[in-house]
Amino acid sequence: MVLDPVRAVTDRLDAVIVSQAEPLEAGGRTVQGWIATAFRFGGSAGQSTKNVLNGVWLGHPLHPALTDVPIGAWTTSLIFDLLGLDRSADATLTLGVVASIPTALAGAADWVDAGDEPRRVGFLHALLNVGALCLYLASMRARAAGSRALGVGLSATGFGIAALSAWLGGELVYRHGTSVNRNAWREPVQDFQVAADAASLQEGRLSAGKISVNGQDVPLVLLKRGTEILALGGTCSHWGGPLGEGKLVDDDCVQCPWHGSHFDMRDGSVHKGPATAPAPVFETRVRDGRVEVRTRILTA
Predict the structure, then answer these.
(1) What angle do CA 117, 121, 127 make, to 5 degrees?
(2) Tell me: the pLDDT tens digits for 193-211?
(3) Do residues 30 and 121 share a domain?
(4) DSSP for 223-234?
(5) Which residue range is the domain that position 119 belongs to?
(6) Helix (H, G, I), strand (E, B) or coil at 164
(7) I need a labelling partner for 161 at 20 to 30 A (CA). Which of 6, 36, 134, 221 fits?
(8) Measured between alpha carbons, how far is 278 from 44 in angstroms, rounded to an integer?
(9) Is 217 left (phi over 0), alpha (psi -120 to 50) or beta?
(10) Whole-model pTM over 0.85
């Protein structure tokens, strides 16, 4: 089959990840530590930068939206090289190199919170990207020096490595669920259901609750404010952390205990990443001493 050689290469990459698990884990942890330190060193500005790179402002991870630019530019450059359109090939190659910088930064901001297998896969993904970028930079230098054939060879090799790295990026999302909204498959709750005993809620303190949807427990996090009771889905949209075990922070936000994402208890919006998707919001009422909830119906 035509795809057999491609599958052989991707299977080999999978084998490398398994056989080199220890060095990939050690290297990944070290680099993650450097990145996390850099964000912490920046204080509030560092956190704001991370929010931007995570895509909190976009409501969607930023990294996958940016990857199309360098990959598209380098693919176009390769085609222009094959057609003998030298100036166009050089220009699109340069565009890809420039675009790869913010793309890499956004990817690093996402990956710094990954653990276990996603950490190892992401580290290899980053190493391949660095290798591809170095080849493209060398290609730019060779082209500028008049060594056209060498430059084309270097960029073609870089393209192959970048393609393998892009495949690994797909593995991170589609196999390991990196940056996938953990609440995407939750069905809306149309009818009120009992979530907790009203007497168990304490003013200004988070409480965990749950309801049953199609025979499965759905966790909730509840907050009592005077006569008002606020309720969100209890699963962090980032990696599935238990929000019911989180803590209350500024402006009535619940902080995920795993990676520190902040969700507004009133509307589920993300105030701090790495999460980008909002938490499900529930209407509440008290009947016969019990808190009942249903999915909030959004109005225009």
Answers:
(1) 145
(2) 998 999 899 998 999 988 8
(3) yes
(4) EEETTEEEEEES
(5) 4-174
(6) helix
(7) 36
(8) 22
(9) beta
(10) yes
